[in-house]
Task: structure prediction
Amino acid sequence: MRHETARPARFLHAGARLISVVRQTSLGAMAALAALAACTQPRADPGPSHLDRQFEDSGQNFALSFDGADDYATSATAEFPDGRHEQTLSTWFTVDTLVDRAALLTLRKDLDSGIELGLRQGVLGAWRVYGDRPLVTAKTAITTGAWHHVAYTFDNTTNQLYVDGALVSSSTDLPDKRTPTSCWLGTLDGTRDLFGGRMDEAHVFDLARSADQLAAEFSGSFSPSEPGLVLDLTFDESAGSVVFDHSEQQNDALLGDGVAPRMPTRVLANLPQSGH
Result:
């Protein structure tokens, strides 16, 4: 038989303290794990109740100057019409040199569908993005060194092209059908049909503007409360890479995707109409 010897009291006290420390450490670790679990539980974040778009008009009439090499801009497309819905695209522009191809406004979904309003050898027109087929084109090339106003309309059956407030051509060819998910200014896609010149007052409507309305727009009469307006870019901000949309849809634009060398620059415009 083996006899156990009595343990000294100091060893018993040390063991009790050790057990107490282990117990406290375990409780602390469990509390830490519980706090971590609470932090990592998925919770619905309501976010801010609203976002304020803070911008201030410079009080001057600016246009965008595109270098024709890599400058462009893009905008959001909320409430943009699909390709065969009534619509109007319009803008002011001027060029010093005529080139083979240059886009002013392009509304497209990938490269499968869309419309490009621009110039080919100085001739204004609108082309289907898919297949690059013309919808409607002017008869003669524009003059360089002067501001021009161009507008394309589609009323569910007829394409019409207006230059400087006057109807110059029409057709009944059907545009591509799909709803655009991107809007490009000064290019087809950021790399092709790059525009070299100045642009001002870019608009998109979800209705076909009448001849009288477009004549008034050309003469300088325009308001951001115009019916059907889904994009209204004036480029009159003092600086920065964002161009604010004055329509109710807030389809703000970004210069050069935020990359400085690709951003068109703001320059003072000298449109002939005092309303611009």
Notes: Residues 1-16 have pLDDT under 50 and may be disordered.
